[in-house]
């Protein structure tokens, strides 16, 4: 079979067939309560974000806030998210963001993100991080981990110091862009916090020029930040906090040597925060070597999100495309992410989906970075309904409108499965995960169910829309039972 072409992303025709309307996708509502991701309309052009050093947007209000003023009246709040939320994010102690004695300007950014109250991981994490203590935090995908570390990180930035004070390391370029945008938006009223994203696949000269100016927070992939440190361009001798987001991936064989090198350049008195949904032995070994009496947080009584209903359809390899076509015609998809196990299969499936008349983008690691940026940006902003991808997209990517995840190819590892299905049901909302299972997958299916302590049910003839469609449920204290 010839190698699939990777030069340009598939930006395939939009259709109005079978419930897949032409045109943009209606966003599913603002993320509530914390760290799930910035508003879709706030997500700026990706290429500019990377190459221009993430210059800070101007504050949205010019009025001077005087003592005694009700500063909350001047906030430009997003529409309230009325979708139902599960106890993954509602089972809190009842704390408010104002309870943490945060700067008023930081609180303004938090509320304008639509974050109303801290989620459980934020309640556990923020006060400890503010105290300067190391943290090992384990919480489910989509429950507000980004907000849990960005809020204390920004609170502790000293604008009088023109140096890098905090590093956030993430495993993928798309996640670096997403976290940097959240950081920029939350800090927009703080009067000059300079945030920079730096990743592989972009012009090194642009990063060098940006670091010649003031930068307070760097959000980076490991290879690029290590390169900049070794060149003497990124001066990290005054970094007081380093965050490892998706720590299990960063401490895997792919990255652990680079992470050890990066830490070697940092001051000995630094705060380390580790966040992830899964913690293999590699994380334990790193923690023992580098963390000082870390505060351990574990909010993982169960591994899978409560709001994600999981089904499997037993098919042959030849039946998969037909089955996918049937799902498209019967499901009420706001946006979907469809996973394949290789870059070549991603491109072939994207072509098939377009031939069936559905709107489709694709993304994988072999594409040029500017094309990845464009696809990620456009899909996040609702310009297309379906995205076919590899496991590149399983780490931390938060797109609120996604309500259906389909494993066209079933993964071999429980960890991969957990991160894939976590792309739907973000921030306590409801979603659907459908797995196409062949004869060869049957043992993996059973093994992953046992490993994760979850049940993947046979797909019914009709799937109840209240399990995954926002319009069929509203915010209440009750959880929807699958």
TrEMBL record:
Protein name as annotated: RNA helicase
Organism encoding this protein: Amphiprion percula (Orange clownfish)
One cellular component term from this protein's GO annotations in UniProt: P-body
PANTHER family hit by this protein: DEAD-BOX ATP-DEPENDENT RNA HELICASE 50 (PTHR47960)
GO BP field: response to heat; stress granule assembly
Keyword Nucleotide-binding: yes
Annotated InterPro entries: DEAD/DEAH_box_helicase_dom, Helicase_ATP-bd, Helicase_C-like, P-loop_NTPase, RNA-helicase_DEAD-box_CS, RNA_helicase_DEAD_Q_motif
Subcellular location: Cytoplasm, P-body
Segments forming domain DEAD-box RNA helicase Q: 95-123
One Gene Ontology term of the molecular function aspect: ATP binding
Keyword field: ATP-binding, Cytoplasm, Helicase, Hydrolase, Nucleotide-binding, RNA-binding
Enzyme class, broadest EC rank: hydrolase
Sequence motif Q motif, residues: 95-123
């Amino acid at each position: 079979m010839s190698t699939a072409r990777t030069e340009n992303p598939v930006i395939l025709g939009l259709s109005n067939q079978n419930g897949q309307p032409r045109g943009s996708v209606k966003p599913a509502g603002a993320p509530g309560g914390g760290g799930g991701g910035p508003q879709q309309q706030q997500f700026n052009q990706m290429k500019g974000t990377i190459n221009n050093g993430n210059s800070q947007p101007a504050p949205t209000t010019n009025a001077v806030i005087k003592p005694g003023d009700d500063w909350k009246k001047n906030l430009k709040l997003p529409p309230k998210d009325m979708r139902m939320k599960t106890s993954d994010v509602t089972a809190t102690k009842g704390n408010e963001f104002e309870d943490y004695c945060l700067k008023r300007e930081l609180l303004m950014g938090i509320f304008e993100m639509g974050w109303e109250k801290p989620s459980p991981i934020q309640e556990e994490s923020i006060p400890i991080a503010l105290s300067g203590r190391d943290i090992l935090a384990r919480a489910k995908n989509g429950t507000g981990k980004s907000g849990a570390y960005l809020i204390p990180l920004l609170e502790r930035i000293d604008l009088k110091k023109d140096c890098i004070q905090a590093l956030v390391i993430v495993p993928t370029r798309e996640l670096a862009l997403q976290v940097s945008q959240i950081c920029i938006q939350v800090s927009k009223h703080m009067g000059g916090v300079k945030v920079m994203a730096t990743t592989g696949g972009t012009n090194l000269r642009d990063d060098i020029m940006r670091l010649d100016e003031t930068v307070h927070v760097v959000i980076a992939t490991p290879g690029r930040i290590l390169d900049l440190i070794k060149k003497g361009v990124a001066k990290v001798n005054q970094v007081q906090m380093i965050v490892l987001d998706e720590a299990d991936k960063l401490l895997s064989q792919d990255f652990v040597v680079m992470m050890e090198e990066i830490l070697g350049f940092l001051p000995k008195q630094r705060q380390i925060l580790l966040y992830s949904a899964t913690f293999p032995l590699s994380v334990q070994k790193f923690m023992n070597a580098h963390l000082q009496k870390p505060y351990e947080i574990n909010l993982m009584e169960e591994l899978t999100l409560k709001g994600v209903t999981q089904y499997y359809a037993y098919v042959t390899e030849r039946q998969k495309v037909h089955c996918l076509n049937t799902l498209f015609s019967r499901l009420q998809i706001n946006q979907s992410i469809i996973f394949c196990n290789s870059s070549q299969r991603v491109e072939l499936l994207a072509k098939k989906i377009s031939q069936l008349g559905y709107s489709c983008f694709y993304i994988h690691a072999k594409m040029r970075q500017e094309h990845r940026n464009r696809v990620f940006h456009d899909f996040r902003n609702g310009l297309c309904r379906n995205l076919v991808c590899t496991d590149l997209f399983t780490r931390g990517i938060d797109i609120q409108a996604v309500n259906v995840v389909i494993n066209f190819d079933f993964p071999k590892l429980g960890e991969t499965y957990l991160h894939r299905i976590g792309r739907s049901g973000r921030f306590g909302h409801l979603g659907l995960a459908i797995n196409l299972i062949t004869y060869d997958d049957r043992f993996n299916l059973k093994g992953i169910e046992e490993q994760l302590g979850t049940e993947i049910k046979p797909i019914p003839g009709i799937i109840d829309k209240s399990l995954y469609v926002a319009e069929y449920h509203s915010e209440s204290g009750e959880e929807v039972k699958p």
